Model the fold of this input.
Amino acid sequence: MSIKIAVIQFPAANCDLDAVHVLNDVIGVKTDLVWHNYFKEEAFDGVIFPGGFTFGDYLRAGIIAAHSPAVDEARIMLKEGKPVIGICNGFQILTEAEFLPGALLQNQSLKFICKWVNLRVENNTTAFTKTMNLGDIIDIPVAHGQGRYFTDNLKELEENNQIVFRYSDENGALTEDSNPNGSMDNIAGVCNLEGTCLGLMPHPERASEEILSPKGTDHGKKFFSSMVDFIKRRTEK
Amino acid sequence: MQTNFIVEIIMTNKEMARDPVGATIKRDLLAKKGYDMISNVRSGQYLRIHISAESETSAKEIIEDMCNKLRIFNPVTQNLTILRVSTS
Done:
């Protein structure tokens, strides 16, 4: 069986084609760009909600897209155990859809932030982090205005091992300086209880080719190769 | 008999969520201009909604229900307040 992944396209998304390119041309997995109103989950093994500014970020980033038919389809995928990832605006969509706990608020600095950061891997058992090691430092860029992670239930997240990435310095220390947006507890990415749904503010699709990285890294590839491994193991069962 | 009402709502971040907009207005504008008597500023979002309903109570109920169902406010971080209901 050949694997097929969907990248959902919304009005005012802008990282959709980057994600399609990385999956098709770097990872080598058949990936389609699908308009959000037309997405049908049965044809796909996994789905990516990419970055952008869906529906102009009106009301709150991600809230209007969270009511899209594509999100209803993704809900079915999660029930079936298929992997779902939300990147940046996709993360905002998945929290607003209540796939993931918490919320993304306006950056503490009130500024749009676009820079390379370091992530420390806190959970390497999810569908998207299986090819990483605990404590690995991931070199990756962020680009957002509303990325300050907030939860009213930090203890439960920690107990359930749902914190997948934290912003850190190059040595893995969780400092205030390494937290680009004021996120609670330096949280950069969280997952659902099953580890099949991941949301994160940084952009793995912009960090999957050495030529795009100031340090010549391609750490973003690990997210997608993990996803493909997870799908392969799932479909072999 | 249907009447046209205007329902005004505001959404503000819960006290436990930091509000950098309010904090900046207070710290970098009000305090610098000598308004030391201002102790706190919280920002929010305002919506003015025109609605046709049988009564003021019904208009309010529909809006409250809609806001809850569609997450017009984010219950994780925000509180919803219905400011007032008036006839248009």
